[in-house]
Amino acid sequence: MKRRNFLVSSTLALSTSVAFGRYRVSAASPVKSDERSKVILLIHGAWHSSLHWNKVSGLLTGMGHHVVAIDLPGHGLNAKFPASYLRQDLAVFSTEESPLKAITITDYVNAAVEAIRALAADRKVIVVGHSMGGIVITQLGEKVPDLIDRLVYLSAYCPTELPSLLAYNELPEAAPAQSRQSETIVGNPAKIGAVRLNLRSTNLTYLEELRQIFYNDVPMEGFLPYAHSLTPDLPLSPLAADTRGTAARWGRVPRTYIRCTEDNAIPLALQDLMIRQADDLTPGNKFNVQTLNSSHSPFASQPKPLSDILDRLP
């Protein structure tokens, strides 16, 4: 099995190394800790990686929390790239089969379960999932509910009534975002096995559309470093998988939903629909709802307000 690396980001000087089984993470210089200190696992969204949590993980570490962000299989340092993407051979890029085609939701969940088991030796873990990461943390609630202190959905998919992420994207509430995103997708996802973006494009109109969808409250010069750190292929299989949470397992874990009001990727109406459906499934354990007036990516545009919400979680 390939080695997966944990990334612990900190604004403090790195001084020690702590081993978790087959994993090795860097630990920040000691900070004052008290009973409010939390163990937090950060799960990125589609095309993203652990690197994109850098500002938030640094702030939370400075607040005294133990924070770990992981790369899901096929993302970040685990990424694989179509050869045509590196050459920018656009004709081939639109048809080349994705090297990530075989990745499944099971691969994603197994990686996250390993991370939780490594962290939960002494304390339960707060798990934060952004966007597509919501389907991963929902399945974590199914697999290891007793190891989780709280699930936090950051403008994330939370399937309960409908089976999959793709099923939610077919709803009227998702239509405005899906219409815009369809203009940025390269090739036929069903044929290449992935939802593909061209982050190396020199077409400024294309890049501006990506910014407007995902980072609309970040200026272009701030968006480009995030964009160029994205993986072009998002495996299609996890998006079509049945990732519903059940009342018996996922439904007994406390949960928070952080709504992003200016989100052009997962519209607010869709976020609110998923919150209502989840609360209907478990009326005795409803979402603790928080709101940020931000785009889909507050870890980039509003890292301090986002970190403050995570710091104040029950």
Structure characterization notes:
By secondary structure, the chain is α/β, with parallel strands linked by helices. It has a single domain, classed as 3-Layer(aba) Sandwich (Rossmann fold), CATH 3.40.50. Helices cover 35% and strands 18% of the residues. It has helices spanning 54-62, 83-87, 90-93, 105-119, 133-143, 165-169, 175-182, 189-192, 204-214, 220-227, 237-240, 268-281, 298-301, 303-311, and strands spanning 6-7, 14-20, 23-28, 39-43, 66-70, 125-130, 148-154, 194-196, 233-235, 255-260, 288-292. The strands form three sheets. The chain has a seven-stranded mixed beta sheet, sandwiched between helices. Helix 1 packs across helix 14 and helix 4 (105-119) packs across helix 5 (133-143). The two termini are 37 Å apart.
